[in-house]
Amino acid sequence: MATKSTDQTPATIEDVALIAGVSIKTVSRVVNHEPNVRDSTRENVQQAIAQLNYRPNTAARRLAGHRSYLFALLYDDPSAYPNASASYVTNLQGGALQVAREQGYDLLIHPWDYRDPLVAEEIRRLIEQSNIDGLLLAPPLAELRSITTMLRSMGKAVVRISPGRTRRADGVTTNDREISAEMTRYLASLGHRRIVYLRGHPDHRAMGGREQGFLDGMTQSELPVTKSSLQQGDNSFDSGVACARKLLKWRQPPTAIFAANDDMAAGVLQVAQEFDIDVPTQLSVAGFDDTPLSRQVWPPLTTINQPIFEMGKAAATLLFQQISGQHSSQGIRVDSTLVVRRSTGPAPS
User: Fold this and answer.
1) Strand partners, 111
2) How many angstroms separate the CA atoms of 32 and 318, rounded?
């Protein structure tokens, strides 16, 4: 490979071709991820690109390749919820943006209200105006048939993140059911017999696996499940407060509460403090997601780390494969893990 000293002048495609010892057309094919380039040649070109910190001219690429080189991440508008946590969207876009930059793409971030009956048509207008090459859909948008049907009719590459009960190979999932069963078994192993689960918002079908995992864990631990074992929340801190104020007034209150997300679990912790109930000696509390909030409350929450950043990366990788014609018949699963902190302990005797 030839060498070239670099200065402050931005590198050109000609510079890359010179260092890699290939033609300008070959560099262009590598930059645009076209097939039929030898692995050794592709590696040489990529090394030259890294050495020169070469950045392709986006406008020229768009003209030459008939693409916009633009991804879009569409997610539910967090402003529609009280006390909404921004960490989910921040981590998701961080993972997607890392892949977008590596592939020379820009990333458009756009919130939508999934309850708007015109949301599919509004997304169509956005695509037509921006000529977006592909889209990432976060839940619950990922679960709306009106949106996915419209996108397929437009021939757009789409990857869904946590797409609920659907089993298509165009999505990125995590092991919600298995890890929720593990959390439930962990609480049972501490001697808890009265365990209550706080459900997430009923419109968020992606949370169905968490509830099913709780039921699996109860069965595996040979614990009875009654109607009282499941309480309806809506993913918000306030719903966690409302549920806890009811539960902790029972004649035989639960000794452990497992919430479908950290926001609701934090609401339970607040009520425990109001009622002068010590956590964890009198009540164990667990959440899901491992948001920054789980480490900021006291005591710190036992929770489940959902690898949102890695899911964003995986989703963007799948999307890029679709756009470049490398689409696999398999989706991607990124596993969550149990995180034990000080909000859980042995059941009171």
Assistant:
1) 75
2) 16
- Do 304 and 174 form a contact (C-beta atoms < 8 A)? no
pLDDT, tens only, 314-326: 999 999 888 877 6
Q: Are strands 332-333 and 171-173 parallel, antiparallel or unpaired?
A: parallel
Model-wide pTM > 0.85: no
The pairing of beta strand 134-137 with beta strand 157-161: parallel
Closest CA to 178 of 224, 212, 223, 218: 212
In whole angstroms, give the CA distance from residue 256 to residue 196: 6
Instruction: Give backbone dihedrals phi and psi of 143, rounded to 5 degrees, phi first.
Output: -100, -5
Q: Could you report the per-residue pLDDT of 33-81, keeping only the tens digit for each?
A: 666 788 888 888 888 888 888 776 655 555 455 567 888 999 887 665 5
The three state secondary structure string of the chain is CCCCCCCCCCCCHHHHHHHHCCCHHHHHHHHCCCCCCCHHHHHHHHHHHHHHCCCCCHHHHHHHHCCCCEEEEEEECHHHCCCCCCHHHHHHHHHHHHHHHHCCCEEEEEEECCCCCCHHHHHHHHHHHHCCCEEEECCCHHHCHHHHHHHHHCCCEEEEECCCCCCCCCEEECCHHHHHHHHHHHHHHCCCCCEEEEECCCCCHHHHHHHHHHHHHHHHCCCCCCHHHEEECCCCHHHHHHHHHHHCCCCCCCCEEEECCHHHHHHHHHHHHHCCCCCCCCCEEECCECCCHHHHCCCCCEEEECCHHHHHHHHHHHHHHHHCCCCCCCCEECCCEEECCCCCCCCCC
For β-strands 337-339 and 303-305, DSSP reports them as antiparallel
In whole angstroms, what is the distance from residue 308 CA to residue 345 CA?
27
From the centroid of its chain, how far is CA 137? 10
What backbone phi and psi angles, to 5 degrees, belong to 2?
-70, 160
**Cα–Cα distance list, 28 to 34, 43, 49 (Å):** 9, 14, 11
Query: Which amino acid would we find at residue 55?
Result: R
Give the closest residue to 217 by CA, choosing from 269, 177, 276, 165: 177
Mean pLDDT, rounded, for 238-264: 96
